[in-house]
Amino acid sequence: MQTHILGYPRIGSKRELKKACEQYWSGKIVLEELLTVGRNICNQNWNIQKEAGVDLIPCNDFSYYDQVLDMSLIVGAIPTRYHEVALKRNNSELDLYFAMARGYQKDGLDITAMEMTKWFDTNYHYIVPEFYKNQQFKLTSSKIFNEFAGAKQAGINAKPVIIGLVSYLLLGKEKEEGFDKLDLAPNILPVYTEILSKLQEQGAEWIQFDEPFLSLDITEKAKETYIAVYSELRKQFPKLKFIVTTYFDGLKDNLSLAVSLPVNVLHIDLVRNPEQLEEVINSIPEDLILSLGLVDGRNIWKNDYENSLAFINKTIEKLGSERVFVAPSCSLLHSPCDLDFETNLNSEIKNWLAFAKQKVKEVVTLKELASGTENQDIINDFEENKKAVSSRKTSSLIHNEIVKQRSKAVTEKEAQRKNPFQARREEQQQALQLPLFPTTTIGSFPQTTEVRSWRAKFKKGELTAEQYDTLLKEETQRTIRWQEEIGIDVLVHGEFERNDMVEYFGEQLEGFVFTKNGWVQSYGSRCVKPPIIFGDVSRPAPMTVYWSQYAQSQTNQWVKGMLTGPVTILQWSFVRDDQSRSETCKQIALAIRDEVVDLEKAGIRIIQIDEPAIREGLPLRKTEWQNYLKWAVEAFRISASGVEDATQIHTHMCYSEFNDIIKNIADMDADVITIECSRSQMELLNAFADFKYPNEIGPGVYDIHSPRVPSKEEMIELLKKAQDVIPAHQLWVNPDCGLKTRHWEETEKALIAMVAAAKEAAVEYSI
Known about the structure:
Layout: E1 2-3, H1 16-25, H2 31-52, E2 58-59, H3 67-74, H4 83-87, H5 93-102, E3 116-118, E4 125-127, E5 130-131, H6 143-153, E6 159-163, H7 165-171, E7 173-174, H8 185-202, E8 206-210, H9 220-236, E9 241-245, H10 255-260, E10 265-269, H11 277-283, E11 289-295, H12 305-319, E12 324-328, H13 347-350, H14 356-370, H15 376-394, H16 401-408, H17 421-432, H18 449-460, H19 465-486, H20 503-506, E13 510-513, E14 520-523, E15 526-528, E16 532-538, H21 545-553, E17 560-564, H22 566-571, E18 574-575, H23 581-601, E19 606-610, H24 625-640, E20 648-653, H25 662-668, E21 672-675, H26 685-691, E22 696-699, H27 712-725, H28 744-766
């Protein structure tokens, strides 16, 4: 029996990579300093796993931005628009890489970033590969070989992690018509063989191929491609040991395909789909090792050793211990780094948790326990684990009978607005008096170093509540004045009092607990610190009314109330696993409903309930979609339906494909939906146009995840594309997402151009 880790967090236990990348982008450190930070994180990660006793330690799971973008650079899938960046004197491979991720606007060049979307049903975003007919590939980056050599230097013959060829192609997007991206498999396969050849020369013995699409609905062509690719790789590398990993769901109808692949180890996710074990162990050929994903890589709850040992023992009984690997369910990328840094958590709750470092130890402990160890420390760990699991089941911290009863009593009427959209629209037009192509932003404005320093000083007691309040009011007032000056129609207060769009609400809701260093990567240098939902959820007091009311008092224009929706709060938190997600979501929806009603009472007539995670929460298998969509849409409607018809409800979604769920989005019945659209050049609007979406839409006209500032003319072109498919009277004009992570200089330039574009579009339309 052996242990292995599929991947480890790469941001550093104190977010060292985030800080170093941002310093490099702003010119505060040089390339070698950034590379040193990367090497240090790799060494630290390897040593944690080595000291814990892991048998197979991964390399190439580290990334400066995104593992899919790494693969694009390695195989030379570099869009031609970046070739000039590569030719610029003094530019490194990493500068080209960052240009692909973030766009490039200097040296006389103005190049848009590559598209970004969600990694399956997680809150991690990846950079979407761009594919063209007859595209050729070549080995372009040495990153994977450098990391393997670095691990070897650290005394570890590591297991290189590579995105499997078929999954890599399926993650990408055809950028022209008339071909299927899977047709590119023969073109890219020689690069994969070159990678493996070089790794074999370096002394690699094990190779991990991540093939998460084996847990999804795939076509017959994809299945045939899997067989062709792995047959060829096995033929060329008979001595290399291949591990194929699947995760986020079960193999199901892909089981016979997966077990037939000529590989040495097949990894399955027994956290997301424990039911698959029986069928897998009865189908597996005699020469295949089974890797059991038993430690949850996506959540923070301590493993239940007794439960996991039952799975291990059942597998050993059928296959023998020499054909069993023990592992986390997926990469630990989605887990915070180290629970030891959490010194302020409630001790009872902390005893229920495990972060990445602790999960590594859990994997090793499970192997020892399954092997019948006599090590007293391991035996003691087992007893402590039993106590922790039992404590969580019976704790009085978790249950609130009033919340449970309110949730049970929800009626169908509470999930419906009083009248249909067309009737509401007339009332809203009369009440709000907004122009054609009304402009707004998605909510947040830049949180400068100064604003963040105020929050830190307030938390440390260096600022009184009154001083902090005054500073935030001054910043809010300045932002209101500036929006008025440039001509934005519907204002926002800027959210300077907020840390994170989920954390801010969770801090004010019962049933949540927070970490100090529980950071996980969302995309690039963007890290989030998800709340932990450990118990029943309720709202003890208003959460946003004070700041919304203050902002509205500073202007005669409308100011939006800004809330995060129940599904997004659920998706972007670490969620309790002792009751259904749908029940937890309904509890959150009722809490948000109370806030919406209080905002309306306070005079706020436009209220945005952000739901960027609706699409992300979809199960990976389509057969399970409708059950999820039923309760997710209902949760949003519960949160939004307590107001009068004249109150306009907005929602926001980003980095999602809408085609398959457009009816469900319409069923949410928001008066206005704002969506990310600029990176796709308005392609995402086609789903709304084909469906004849009846409500109002704000397609984002510029990408806030890139530092480049688009011109007015560029935005006008996007608005023209939008008008080609959506009636002008339904269109709003806004950025793709919130502006919290941007700088004021670029924000001001971009929004001034956006307002000018909207006004020009309105004039042209009226002519």
